[in-house]
Amino acid sequence: MENILSYFLLVPLFGYIISLLIHRKQEALLSYTAVITAGVQFAGAVAFIAIWMLHGHPTYNHKDLVLFSSHNYEFYLDFAFDKITAMYLLVGSFLTFLVTVYSRFYLHRESGYKRFFNTVLFFFFGYNLVILSGNLETLFIGWEILGISSFLLIAFYRDRYLPVKNAVKVFSIYRIGDVGLLIAMWMTHHLFHQNVTFITLNNYEIVHEHLQTHSWIGIIISMMFFISAAAKSAQLPFSSWLPRAMEGPTPSSAIFYGSLSVHIGIFLMLRTFPFWEHQLSVRILIGVMGLFTAVVATLISRVQSSVKSQIAYSSIAQIGLIFIEVSLGWKDIALWHFAGNAFLRTYQLLVSPSVVSYLIKEQFFNFVPRPHTIEDSLPKRLEYSLYMLSLKEFNLDSFMYRYLWNPLKGAGKALNFLTVTRAFFIFLPLYIFGILLLNFESMVPPMVHDWLPTFFSLIGLISVLKAFTEREKARLSWLMVMMNHFWIALAISFSEHYSFTEAAWYLGGIIVAGVGGFWALYRLRKLEDGIDLARFHGHAHPHPKIGFVFLLCCLGLTGFPISPTFIGEDLIFSHIHADQFWLAAFTAVSLIIDGLAIIRIYARVFLGPHAKSVYEMAYKNG
What we know:
The protein is mostly helical. The protein has helices at 7-21, 27-54, 83-106, 113-131, 136-154, 161-192, 198-201, 204-211, 215-232, 241-244, 250-259, 264-271, 273-276, 280-301, 307-327, 331-365, 380-391, 396-413, 420-439, 446-469, 474-495, 500-527, 544-557, 565-574, 581-606, and strands spanning 60-69, 74-81. The chain has two domains: 2-362, no CATH class; 414-606, no CATH class.
């Protein structure tokens, strides 16, 4: 039965490919394709799980496809199936089926009808890839697909300011989770000296043997898992992104942020539980953070004026409780709690467009005075303080800006003196000098050689900081992002020599995507008056083909699974030694900012209100 696991990936992938080939005006065919895909998946899941339970519900693990292999590294797809996968598969396929049926009529005559169903099916494929994954590499592919699907659906109304801005904000939080997983993959590779599967992590003797002399490494890996899960599941301090994600259509809010995507962090913690279950400090931290999240989110939800925001914070509170259950080892309860919360939030979000009319009717015809609540028993000063903090959402947005994004922007603004010409005359000679040093590596003093990887990775970080804060020239920002990858490749070459094949995997994808993206920006510059990054231009309206090509190039440059750069990034971390902390830190941070800079270029140039008034637009409030 292990060979059947790939069926659950082929069905959504096949449905997605078919939906791409259907013309956007054929609404019925588009919707039926999505409904049939989800329905077939759900029927197959029910049949498979029934047979699996009759056979005693064993744990399956199937190594499917080796994508890259060298003498000390192997990147392969691995699939697993157990009760965790079974619950997520049933809930996911059933809710996707319901939401696609609902969306057929809800989005009727919407200009982005085809785009919506394409993205939902793409998300459905990524979701199934995550829950069926048998190792971190396979999980990370689906994890990335969920991230870009979220961005596209939040920015579904791409001619409006707030949906696009909030989509970029959500993607920025997701990027933190992405790099947390990358670091966890890097450290587990050095800890186990192989790419481990989740089945391996279930073996207590193997895990205990490796952690016995590396307890701190185990704690750091566990913390990286938790940070990734917290970012994906909107736990403190990342909670504020979930209500902002509700800018997308109601069906996507229901399936993404009410039921499936927002619970993927729980899935990650359940999958990795055998690794950190004996680390008491990690379990206490997860439980405490879950408790704080549940309390804070509950307080915020009680003062929300928007129905969707109230549902979002209520869901965050319940997910906080699920984190507590996981930390206590109550995995079965956590699974049933996930299913119940997913069904409830999906229902609440789908009926949210009608709830206002219901409440108005109740207010006029069945008025009930506000009941006494627990807050009324508190001292008035404390009650009012909690009320104001809840209205301000405990300043979570301000916290993230003050301690995360503003320092990055400040560092980037210090590089405003770099123009295209200056960047060319500074970085190109320095890079050539680095290549010469690499060719005559034996003549470099050992002390200098040890610091060269860190130095060149720092230069790459400076390049991408400039790209992240550039407000005038989109092409300069794009070039700085490309240069970051070349600096990283040079840094790793001094750490541990690349083979030609590995370099081709990584830089080959960068060059193709980089040149294609630069051409798209150059072509657009010829057709439009300006493509600066100081505002949203909305050029996807008159130039949809250029916008689509540029989006593909953005995905290639960020290391999305459609390009060999994705495997190349994993190869990079496999060549960073366990004692090279600063090299790993600079590389990880540069990859975070790299993705943010790229998605910022795409959003500013192609999304938002169009510069010409002949198109419908919604301006910023206030």
